[in-house]
Amino acid sequence: MSLLTRVTKRLVVGRPVRSDRIGEATLPKRVALPIFASDALSSVAYATQEILLMLSLAGVAYLWIAPWTAGAIVLLFAVVIASYRQVVHAYPSGGGDYEVATRNLGRFAGLTVASALLTDYVLTVAVSVSSGVDNIISAFPGLNAWRVGLALGFVAVLAAVNLRGVRESGTAFAVPTYAFAAGVLLMIATGLIRAMFGSAPVAESASWGIRPEPGYTALTGVEAIANGVPAFRPPKSRNAATTLLALGVLAITMFSGITALALISKVHVATNTCDLVGFPGNCQTHPQRTVIAQIASAVFGGNGSIGFFYIQAVTALILILAANTAFNGFPLLGAVLAQDRYLPRQLHTRGDRLVFSNGIVLLAAFACLLIYAFHAEVTRLIQLYIIGVFTSFTLGQSGMVRHWNRLLRAERDPEQRHRMIRSRAINATGATLTGLVLVIVTLTKFLLGAWIVIVAMPIIFITMRGINRHYTRVSEELVPEDEGVLMPSRVHAVVLVSKVHKPTLRALAYARATRPDTLTALTVNVDDAETRALQAEWERLGLPVALTVVESPYREITRPVLDFVKRIRRESPRDVVTVFIPEYVVGRWWEHLLHNQSALRLKGRLLFSPGVMVTSVPWQLHSSDRRAHPRERPLPGDLRRGLEARAAPRAAPRPPDGGALPDGERAGSPDRPPDRPPVGTAGDRPP
Known about the structure:
It is elongated and about 110 Å long. It starts with a helix and ends in a 21-residue tail after the last strand. By secondary structure, the protein is of the alpha/beta class. 58% of the residues lie in helices and 6% in strands.
């Protein structure tokens, strides 16, 4: 790794953390709340807006339905919170809905939940960051042209912060989350007090009309705590359940207050700014303000007030940081799936800071792709969001019902049975409500973009099944057989020779040091003149291994070598052939294009040959180690003495069966008398 890469990595990620400090990365409740609940808390910033967009389907006259819609969402949210409190107690390992569905409904349901959750986490990042950028643009409309670039930049920053570890990310996100909650609660209290005393706030859009258009709302993020239970401090389940309760109370209070203020101040919004009748300015270039921005302006006295800018700042910050919920949930779920062999094992590996860094990078990449494809527009992205959320909700709660049914069949304690029956009723209610929502949104939002998720989830499902089948086949193939591992009868070494230079001599010396039964120096004749010159140089140096030449009338190199190796294998199927390939180690990217191409092609073919081992013998060029320790510079004399020292070649006995040996040197056999030192020992000093 280059110095620049190392320095950049340390600046972004920080110093590595020892594995025995993994317990120090667990979280207290006050830090876990902003980390895992920031998505659900921040969704109140756009949930009311999505309600108003949904009701704008029939125009301003139907906004009276908003309180009833908000009430239904509050009820659903409360039921989901209560349901997930049962999950964190029953399944504290962190698998969440995936583990619940897998254990109680089977592998098919578990993988369906997993594909839904993976999609949901990616969309959480895309929606939250895009919504945060919306609120920044509400305060500074001139940034509208930079919408996508801002969103991509924020995703990159979030990924970098999370790569530093959960403790540091928790500290970074705690203050903005609590600042947002305090600001919104203050705004709600101020607005309601003004309304009670006859000076109700009036939004800037109160006098605008709306042309009918489609839309809907979403309130999500609850499942992240169930997936992140292992990150809590002991007692993990109790702390996670308490955090869920605090999240529910706070989110419901904030959502209800914002919705009440939106109705009191008569906020009007539309998906397309040009659908707002009476909108001042150019609707093609000037974006409308978000609902929470209009409320803050009405409550605190205008767009230039301190309160307005404070609410916009903390709202944008919390919405962007809300993506941190996914940056914690996605890697944890990916690690669980990788452990179960449904995703690549690399996702189960912790990075320098004891986080699942591969999952963090993968999530950031997919989120950036969505943001770019949908131009960071919340209303377009949110169409994809709700399918995955309620799929995991429904299957997870259905699995919990079956979980309680199974336990009730074996439980005889009346008190425990009463508790289980109550928990089952909560989960059954949650499964029913979320299942109903899933059916409705699937039918109504399919053509508005939800079809993308409905197509993506089966693709993810099939991919995970394929990965699992591959890992299963490999495991079965690698199980040792009953007769144990058979030792090879003999080892044949083949050193590939292109020229007589330092890399070749090092490979030859190293091959002799391994003490094979036979040793062959092999070259391919693609040019008669060059081959004759090579033979002459070989004889001039008096090298103790005979040079074998194989013909190549079509100037191929790979095929003649493969044929030579296969011939040895055919003659002795129980023997092993080791091919030593000298290779250059270079330090500049463009030097890779100039060296080792033939070696790479040959190595790639040899690796597929049974009974053949491939050994790369590196020779470091000066460019590969320009700033490290001084390079070893062996003299040609050292090289020659290393080959000709005390371990000079000796006459080898013929095989017991009287057969002929392959071309090359006989370097000893397993039944060699102990008093005869083998070739390639003490006197050989590889360069």
